[in-house]
Design brief:
alpha+beta
Length: 88
């Protein structure tokens, strides 16, 4: 659900589908939005994302989807993400 939702929002994954993990997915940061700003906006709404590492530190973010998560929680994250990207 996260991957489908992110694709609908136009967010590009770092890796092709066949190379992606089942527990965490890396995405390119939306244009004009820093990791720290995106992280802080999502955290205000109760969601945490993770920074890229090394030379990808300011280029990607990672979303974990581990645990007993519901469709409602995935949908909530996608809504929060969309709002975070639209804020000025």
């Amino acid at each position: 659900m996260i991957r489908e939702g992110m694709a609908k929002l136009g967010v590009k994954p770092l890796l092709p589908v066949e190379r992606q993990s089942n527990t965490i997915t890396a995405y390119h940061l939306p244009e004009g939005l820093s990791y720290q700003v995106l992280h802080d906006r999502l955290k205000q709404q109760g969601y945490v994302i993770y920074a890229g590492q090394g030379n990808l530190e300011n280029k990607i973010f990672r979303v974990a989807n581990m645990g007993a998560l519901t469709e409602g929680q995935f949908g909530g994250f996608l809504n929060a993400f969309e709002q975070a990207c639209r804020q000025k």
